Amino acid sequence: MNFKKSNTTKLAGAGILTAITASLCCITPVLALISGAAGAASAFSWIEPYRPYLIGITIIVLAFAWIQKLKPYKADEIACDCEDETKLSFWQSKRFLTIVTIFAVLMMAFPYYGSVFYPNNNKEVVVVKQNDIQTLHLNVQGMTCSACDNNVENAVYQVPGVINAKADFHTGKAVVKFDKSKTSPKKIIKSIDATSYKVIGDSLGH
């Protein structure tokens, strides 16, 4: 097999692998929500510090694959017609490399559109007394991207009596407003811990 053919295919495979690995920390929370396996939501959060490097490797690998595919043929390659696109299998074609590139871009950009997979948690809450409204400030460990924010918020909204929930992976904090006559900080914290993100500190106020 021509080196150029096999090398391009291997590079494409490496590009897919690194792109998926780079996005595991953000994809896993969504898969956990869909499958109902809430405890696996933060299983790959440890990958987040390496995500920029993995994205960089993916870009370099795919760029090199395209260079290999598009660079001018040498005289001996032209003579033997080794790179005739019509003779290439699908796995060695430009079409396959294009699909791989698009897939890799979608994987790497997942944190920016992952929220579309989460349900709309807007709901009407009737509070009996204004004094029953309390605000819980939480320090949450394990959130690494917006998908994690959505996962934490979705879990909290499942607790009856929760009025509003907002998580922010940048600060590692979550703020929850709730009706204290219907739920408690303990139940809210338990709902987050059940996702495998961990509450490591909290404060309560009005």
Model description:
The protein has 2 domains: 114 residues; 87 residues, Alpha-Beta Plaits, CATH 3.30.70. The protein is built from 7 helices and 4 strands. A 4-stranded antiparallel beta sheet has the order 2-3-1-4. A hairpin with a 4-residue loop joins strand 2 and strand 3. The protein is elongated.
Structural class: alpha+beta
- Number of DSSP strands? 4
Q: Tell me the strand order in the biggest sheet.
A: 2-3-1-4
- Overall domain count: 2
Q: Residue-averaged pLDDT, rounded?
A: 81
The biggest beta sheet is recorded as: 4 strands, antiparallel
Give the low-pLDDT segments: none
Radius of gyration: 24 Å
Query: What sort of overall outline do the alpha carbons produce when their principal axes are compared?
Result: elongated
Please give the share of residues in helix: 40-55%
What percent strand?
A: 15-25%
For the terminal residues, how far apart are their CA atoms?
Answer: 71 Å
Compute the number of helices. Answer: 7
What is the helix/strand order? Answer: HHHHHEHEEHE
Features:
206 residues; alpha+beta; Alpha-Beta Plaits; four-stranded antiparallel sheet; 15% strand; elongated
Q: Secondary-structure map with pairings?
A:
Blueprint: H1 3-35, H2 51-70, H3 75-80, H4 94-108, H5 110-113, E1 133-141, H6 146-157, E2 162-168, E3 173-179, H7 185-193, E4 198-205
Antiparallel strand pairs: 1-3, 1-4, 2-3
Helix pairs in contact: 1-2, 1-4, 1-6, 2-4, 6-7
